UniProtKB/TrEMBL annotation:
Protein name listed in UniProt: Fibulin-1
Cellular compartment(s): Secreted
Stated family: Belongs to the fibulin family.
TM region(s), chain numbering: none
Keyword Zinc: no
Domain EGF-like: residue ranges: 340-376
Source organism: Xenotaenia resolanae
Length: 380
């Protein structure tokens, strides 16, 4: 095959790959749009039709929740503009939706109050979260009426920066995205107005902490928005099928086992096993060498009572305890101490006379007509 044929094959392969990527992207976008349609009908985003594709189900659920979240916030803004009470019983939807509506209603009330008192509509110093800050700014700047059921754009982010006095029309302002009140530039959600008062720049939600990704997800910034990507625990890697796969450190060579050890892979980790197994009576130290085990220290009562443990190389032995006792005493059964000998039980030391045992000795109490002789130690 010549060079030209190789180029043609390569081009055909690249076209097929790009076509596959485009079809997957279109499929994800369709799944997201399906989630938006469910939210538009005010259905519960937790009860959704199941897709065979896991990534499609994720896109559907989160797009549904994002639309429902913005709609709930817009309901709160509308309630505040109508000068009605910001109480959760007055809002419809699930518990988390009514909570968002109440929060946006309160934040919009803050913006309306700031505007009526003539204060600035810049709420950055208050360190409010993004949703509350946007609601307060929108109500303070008095943009056009919000329609909670509108599909796009659902929310407009307005900044207090004003154009030069001589530019009083949208045509003169040359806004990059939106123009409100016929003399003020504004940005869509996910963008912020730059210092020139006309250009909108992307907000990196991943850097400023305004994203809602969980601890098991990684925030990935996009133009005007962001998305949460599943993050795997240490020892695992995320595959193209959105599955956390175990990393085989032993195969990759990323383990730290020494030369005398074998790497054994486990789920999410590994461990090192000695190449040579030590004989009985030995154990392997940190350097991988076999050393003697002191059984007299490691084992509990390795020898029987009356015996002492003696450690040997690779084993141990038991030796009977022995003590030297004086006259009138003998070693105990365990051989650890001496005890008195009861001579009166051993032999008939006193004959027909009475034998009295003493500590280490004995005494004969003679019958009438006899006396004890210290010399012969008998009754005479």
């Amino acid at each position: 095959m010549g060079p030209m044929a190789h180029r043609i094959v390569l081009l055909l392969f690249l076209c097929a790959v790009l076509k596959g990527i485009e079809s997957k992207l279109t499929s994800v976008q369709e799944c997201c749009e399906a989630g938006r349609e469910i939210a538009l009908r005010e259905h519960d985003c937790t009860v959704l039709p199941r897709f065979t594709s896991h990534i499609c189900s994720i896109a559907q659920e989160h797009c549904c929740r994002a639309f429902a979240k913005k709609r709930a916030c817009n309901n709160g803004i509308k309630m505040a503009r109508g000068k009605q009470a910001c109480e959760r019983p007055f809002f419809t939807g699930s518990s988390w939706e009514t909570q968002i509506s109440e929060a946006c209603c309160d934040c919009c009330t803050l913006g309306l109050k700031m505007d009526s008192m003539g204060f600035s509509c810049d709420f950055q110093d208050l360190q409010l979260d993004k949703q509350c800050s946007n609601a307060a700014r929108v109500c303070c700047e008095k943009p056009k009426e919000i329609n909670p059921n509108a599909k796009a754009p659902e929310e407009t982010e307005v900044f207090a920066t004003r154009p030069p006095e001589e530019a009083n029309t949208c045509r003169e302002l040359n806004c990059s995205q939106l123009c409100v009140d016929n003399g003020r530039c504004a940005c869509n959600d996910g963008f912020q107005l730059q210092r020139d008062g006309a250009t909108c720049g992307d907000i990196n939600e991943c850097l400023n902490g305004s994203h809602n990704c969980s601890s098991e997800q990684v925030c990935v910034n996009t133009e005007g928005s962001f998305y949460c990507q599943l993050s795997c625990h240490p020892g695992f890697i995320l595959t193209d099928n959105i599955i956390c796969k175990d990393i085989d450190e032993c195969t990759l060579g990323s383990h730290d086992c020494g030369a005398n050890y074998v790497c054994i892979n486990t789920a999410g980790s590994f461990y090192c096993e000695p190449k040579v197994v030590c004989r009985d009576g030995y154990r392997r130290n940190a350097a991988g060498n076999c050393i003697d085990i002191d059984e007299c220290v490691v084992l509990v009562n390795p020898c029987r009572p009356g015996q002492s443990c003696i450690n040997t190389v690779g084993s141990y032995s038991c030796r009977r305890n022995t003590v030297t006792c004086p006259r009138g005493y003998h070693p105990t059964v365990d051989g650890t101490r001496c005890e008195d000998v009861d001579e009166c039980l051993i032999t008939n030391m006193c004959g027909k006379h009475i034998c009295v045992n003493l500590d280490g000795s004995y005494r004969c109490e003679c019958s009438a007509g006899y006396r004890f002789s210290n010399t012969t130690e008998v009754c005479e």
